[in-house]
Recover the amino acids of this structure.
């Protein structure tokens, strides 16, 4: 059996209702056999897979695991047995797994960790026994010898009591262990059960049956030292009212922690003293804080404060001011509009401020709000639609590197703004701020700017020609959805470092600016949703050699044969065409638009070929028609003139001879000698007027030379035309020699004339000659048609 998900080192056989391991590569390192049917595992179940490192047997309905069942996969580092109702394992079931580092036994009906023989797993780093029936956090004493053990996950069990003897082994283990006790119905923790225990992280979300149990449990953690403490509720839990405001978090004062993450779902009508016991933490995260106003905050060692989804209504500038250790402040996604009328004061260490998504309400300029934070480097005030900041007075922010006003109203940048103090600024986002640019030096002083976003801005006049002239280090420029009709070539004169240009959603009709030699580093151009119908060949030939992504999707591409080369270019460069399947041809239909990908370029090849051949045929036809018309007019002129003359004068000759010059010896030596006893005058210069029209008969001497002679064929056609119009000149055919039928067809009317009329044949013998001359003289003298 070969599976679609099978590669050289990975095999995905999950969800196929298999009861056996299919043939897999002996070098397979990852085998996902989850959601199949394996009631029992024995020694011969697995093939020899000594390179296997990851084995997933999630929910395979395993009830029975024999001893040494994993002997053929003894090198695995991760074993997942989640969701299997394991009823039997022997003492040596896992005895071969000396290299195991991660064991997952979630939802296996386990009653005690000791039921799984793991003392030989000396390399074990993580044990996940969540969602079982454990009553205790006790772990085997041999775990104290596991030098690399890092994580014990006991979530969603039945642990209700934690005593000192339960944690005795933890006290002898290394100091960087993470223990997860969330979603356990803890009623009681013996005081001092975690004394002198050092943990990397302790997670206690939804770990107590009541608020009182939580209050007592936190106090019982006295003496615990932990790097990160996670408390509170999960996101979807219902909020509960707290009556004992001061005692709910009092136990935190007895725990030594450096970082705390609290999702507060408890609420009260009074101010909740959240920070009373957090003053020594270096990082404090409060999620979903259920208080509208914050009390006085004393954060003596805190370097990072994060408050998200809270109920605060006033920016806590007064409470946070004068904190000299605070370096990073994040207050985002407030549920209510936040009044921000007073600035932060005396915060010399503050470098990072994120107050985005808060519906800020203020009458102050942002410069005044942060004027006493001289070392600020990152300022994010995006998504505050109710605020309206001006963009003046930028002095004093010499260390600012990131400034984000995305979707926050700012006063239009209509005048020159001095940004010389922002010479360290690397990221500036003014997109969707309602900004209008009229001055070409608006960004003067931003020589180190790397990213500039200006979506949905307004550019008046020809300001774009020189607006970016000073941004020599710019790497990314976004001017999308700004109603730009033309990007001048001069706009990119100094942008030699530009790698990304986003100009989608505008009214551009061309991308000629790509030919600017300064765009030698451009990797990505997004010109989607513009009015581009084609890109000329000279632009395509001069695209930046570094270009890797070009997006012209949702443009009205001209799919006519006049742009066939451009269409073929698109089809041949799908590797760089982003969203090429969304590149459509221009169409008057609003329901269906053909895709450029479906355009048949061969059709245009046939059309072009047809046009060329048609043009050649037309030229040839016109030339031939002109010749025929000229010839017809000439014939008509000659015949009409001859017809008029014949009505007025008598014929001068009895016969006019048509012959090839190569048969002249026979004509003069035989024909003329016997008919006239003397040679007539040469009438080459007056064949028509003095020859055919002036003779009663036309003698045609037919030979191979006659057939090959263009002049002879012309004279014969004239004679036929004259006879057709009733002008006389009966035709006498003399076959000087045998002429094949195919050769006779080369002279217009000759073959048909020979079939319908009699003719004379020349034979070089005395009897035939006598008969020949007798008949010829009779034909020449006769006045009737021969």
């Amino acid at each position: 059996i070969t599976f679609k998900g099978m590669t050289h080192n990975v095999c995905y056989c999950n969800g196929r209702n298999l009861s056996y391991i299919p043939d897999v590569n002996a070098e397979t390192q990852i085998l996902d056999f989850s959601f199949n049917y394996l009631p029992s595992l024995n020694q011969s179940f697995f093939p020899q897979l000594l390179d296997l490192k990851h084995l997933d047997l999630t929910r395979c309905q395993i009830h029975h695991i024999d001893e040494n069942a994993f002997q053929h996969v003894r090198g695995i580092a991760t074993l997942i047995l989640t969701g299997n109702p394991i009823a039997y394992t022997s003492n040596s079931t896992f005895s071969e797994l000396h290299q195991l580092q991660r064991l997952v036994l979630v939802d296996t009906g386990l009653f005690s960790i000791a039921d799984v023989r793991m003392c030989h797993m000396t390399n074990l780093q993580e044990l996940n026994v969540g969602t079982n029936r454990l009553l205790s956090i006790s772990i085997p004493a041999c775990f104290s010898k596991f030098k690399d053990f890092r994580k014990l996950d006991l979530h969603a069990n039945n642990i209700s009591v934690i005593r000192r003897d339960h944690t005795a082994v933890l006290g002898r283990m290394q100091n960087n262990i993470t223990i997860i006790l969330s979603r356990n119905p803890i009623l009681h923790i013996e005081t001092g059960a975690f004394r002198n225990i050092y943990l990397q992280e302790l997670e206690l979300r939804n770990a107590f049956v009541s608020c009182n149990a939580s209050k007592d449990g936190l106090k019982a953690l006295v003496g615990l030292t932990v790097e990160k403490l996670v408390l509170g509720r999960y996101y979807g839990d219902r909020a509960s009212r707290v009556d004992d405001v001061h005692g709910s978090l009092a136990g935190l004062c007895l725990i030594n922690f450096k970082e705390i993450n609290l999702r507060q779902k408890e609420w009260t009508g009074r101010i909740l003293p959240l920070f009373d016991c957090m003053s020594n933490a270096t990082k404090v995260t409060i999620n979903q804080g259920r208080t509208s106003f914050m009390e006085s905050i004393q954060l003596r060692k805190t370097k990072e404060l994060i408050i998200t989804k809270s109920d605060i209504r006033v920016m806590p500038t007064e409470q946070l001011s004068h904190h000299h250790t605070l370096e990073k402040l994040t207050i985002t996604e407030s549920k209510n509009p936040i009044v921000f009328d007073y600035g932060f004061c005396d915060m010399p260490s503050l470098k990072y401020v994120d107050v985005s998504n808060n519906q800020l309400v203020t009458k102050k300029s942002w410069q005044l709000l942060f004027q006493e934070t001289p070392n600020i480097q990152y300022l994010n005030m995006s998504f505050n639609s109710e605020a309206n900041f001006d963009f003046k007075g930028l002095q004093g922010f010499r260390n600012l590197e990131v400034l984000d006003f995305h979707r926050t109203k700012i006063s239009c940048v209509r005048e020159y703004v001095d940004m010389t103090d922002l010479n360290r600024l690397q990221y500036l986002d003014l997109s969707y701020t309602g900004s209008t640019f009229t001055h070409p030096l608006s960004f003067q002083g931003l020589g180190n700017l790397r990213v500039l976003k200006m979506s949905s801005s307004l550019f008046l006049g020809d300001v774009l020609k020189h607006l970016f002239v000073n941004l020599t280090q710019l790497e990314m420029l976004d001017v999308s959805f700004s109603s730009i009709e033309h990007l001048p070539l001069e706009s990119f004169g100094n942008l030699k470092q530009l790698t990304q240009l986003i100009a989608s959603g505008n009214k551009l009709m061309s991308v000629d600016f790509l030919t600017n030699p300064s765009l030698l580093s451009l990797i990505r151009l997004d010109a989607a949703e513009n009015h581009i119908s084609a890109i000329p060949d000279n632009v395509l030939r001069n695209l930046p050699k570094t270009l890797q992504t070009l997006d012209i999707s949702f443009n009205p591409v001209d799919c006519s044969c006049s742009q066939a080369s451009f269409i073929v270019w698109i089809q041949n460069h799908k590797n760089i065409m982003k969203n090429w399947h969304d590149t459509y041809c221009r169409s008057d239909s609003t329901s269906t638009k053909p895709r450029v990908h479906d355009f048949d370029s061969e059709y245009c090849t046939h059309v072009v070929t047809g046009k060329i051949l048609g043009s050649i045929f037309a030229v040839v036809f016109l030339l031939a028609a002109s010749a025929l018309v000229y010839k017809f007019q000439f014939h008509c002129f000659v015949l009409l003139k001859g017809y008029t003359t014949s009505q007025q004068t008598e014929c001068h000759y009895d016969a006019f001879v048509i012959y090839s010059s190569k048969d002249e010896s026979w004509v003069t030596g035989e024909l003329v000698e016997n008919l006239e006893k003397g040679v007539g005058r040469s009438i080459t210069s007056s064949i028509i007027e003095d020859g055919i029209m002036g003779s009663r008969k036309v003698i045609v001497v037919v030979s191979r030379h006659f057939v090959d002679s263009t002049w002879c064929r012309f004279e014969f056609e004239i004679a036929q035309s004259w006879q057709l119009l009733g002008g006389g000149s009966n035709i006498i055919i003399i076959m000087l020699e045998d002429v094949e039928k195919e050769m006779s067809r080369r002279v217009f009317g000759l073959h048909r004339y020979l079939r319908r009329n009699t003719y004379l044949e020349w034979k070089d013998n005395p009897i035939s000659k006598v008969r020949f001359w007798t008949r010829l003289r009779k034909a020449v003298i006769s006045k009737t048609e021969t």
Notes: Residues 603-638 form one domain.
